[in-house]
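Predict fold of MarR family transcriptional regulator; 168 aa.
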Amino acid sequence: MSTPPPSDVSASPEVVEIERALYRITYLSSRARQHERLMAAAGVPLDRAGAALLRKMADAEPMRPGELAARLGVEASHVTRTVQHLERSGHVVRVPDPEDRRAQRIELTDAGREAVVRIREAGVRGMQAALAHWDPDDLRQLAGLFHRMVDDFLAHAEAMDVESPTTG
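Predicted 3D structure, encoded as tokens:
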């Protein structure tokens, strides 16, 4: 087993523990079995890619496939295949882009919006069950800290994008 290269920045023990906790929660939430349980509880038969695409679209205006791929951090070909599957299942439709009639945007249908609601509700029920013994003040504090952390991660990522733009 090789030793990782030394870091230029020494991290505080608290940041190391946060990274470890985030890894654990990401691993738990991305497991196939967990996804299958969530979809079964929601009554929505979607694969992980389809569910992720619907959730991302629910928080934004209709967008072009390339923009959707960028926001999801995946290749455009992955979005194309997923959109085709979601079109066949009635969760999304392609609509003309009002800024360029030759281009298309992807839009949720009523069925797509309902699927997102059901997925989110099932996720909240599962989280509520797991955290039922937590004090409401602790839950409020955790929610606030999570939002603050995500906002800081996003700001950092945007700053990194400005400092070193990628060429395509």
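Helices lie at 13-30, 32-42, 48-58, 65-72, 76-88, 110-130, 136-163.
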